[in-house]
Design goal:
Layout lengths: L2 H10 L3 H14 L39 H28 L5 H27 L12 H8 L4 H30 L2 H35 L3 H11 L11 H6 L4 H5 L4
Helix pairs in contact: 1-2, 1-3, 2-4, 3-4, 4-7, 6-7
Length: about 260
């Protein structure tokens, strides 16, 4: 098995548990796997995912209050859906873009393995609530941006890890605060899961930051000028406060970038 081919195989897997298993197996074997950095693969029809959840427009997804059992489950399901998409996103970054350094592919395999762990934690939590992934409708916003940037690795690094995933650094503490107010055993268990996710997502955004700036340096791109142009071109969502400045700083955003965030 070649590392990038293995990533494509896992990307195409439709069953969530099998996808998680394939990613973990690939990660465990990765030190002994050859990585062909120049291979180009035929593009599959799309990411492998199950028939459920039903995908609807973001505006149609119901609000999720954690203060009821059903609302708590729906909230956790929405986060599980983000993590499932994030597995595919990391795998896509591996197989889709040839010509990057080997370290790039191994970084994103590490991300895929941690996203798979996050999804498994949330799926197990949902099961304790009497639900499973697929029981609630979801939207496809994260994958939409992944698809839009499939022909531009610089834009991918700029707008997926550094924009969409960085929004998770901002949102997670707010969700945790609500869950602490609920203070049920299920809510407090969810807070602990989100602690794990937040800590590791800082590293994922940092990987995106590293490779974005590496690409800009390689290609002679002004990173500060490129970002707003790419956000406009690919219709990235606007950044809105409050921002988790500490987490963003830990993830490698520069003082100039942090100062430019809207107030």
């Amino acid at each position: 098995m070649q590392l990038r081919r293995g990533a494509l195989n896992a990307f195409c897997q439709t069953q969530p548990q099998l996808k998680v298993s394939e990613v973990h197996s690939l990660w465990q074997k990765s030190d002994g796997l050859h990585c062909d950095c120049e291979a180009v693969f035929p593009e599959p029809l799309g990411p492998g995912r199950p028939e459920q959840p039903a995908l609807i427009a973001p505006a149609l997804v119901p609000r999720r209050s954690p203060f009821t059992p059903q609302g708590h489950a729906a909230l956790m399901h929405s986060i599980a859906h983000i993590e499932f998409n994030a597995i595919n996103l990391a795998l896509d970054a591996i197989w889709r873009f040839p010509g990057m350094p080997e370290a790039y592919y191994r970084d994103w395999l590490c991300v895929a393995a941690e996203e798979a762990k996050h999804f498994a934690l949330l799926q197990a939590h949902l099961q304790t609530l009497g639900f499973a992934y697929g029981d609630f409708a979801a939207h496809d916003g994260l994958w939409t941006m992944c698809e839009a940037t499939k022909g531009d690795v610089v834009a991918r690094m700029a707008l997926v890890p550094r924009t969409l995933e960085a929004r998770g650094l901002d949102a997670t503490p707010l969700i945790q605060a609500k869950l602490r107010k609920v203070a049920t055993p299920a809510a407090l268990a969810a807070v602990e899961i989100l602690d794990t996710i937040l800590t590791e997502e800082v590293g994922h955004v940092a990987i995106g930051n590293h490779w974005f700036h590496w690409l800009c340096q390689r290609d002679g791109i002004d990173a500060l000028a490129f970002y707003p142009e790419a956000a406009l071109r690919y219709r990235a969502p606007s950044l809105k406060p409050p921002f988790n400045i500490e987490a963003r700083r830990a993830a490698g955003f520069t003082p100039i970038e942090l100062a430019a965030l809207p107030s």
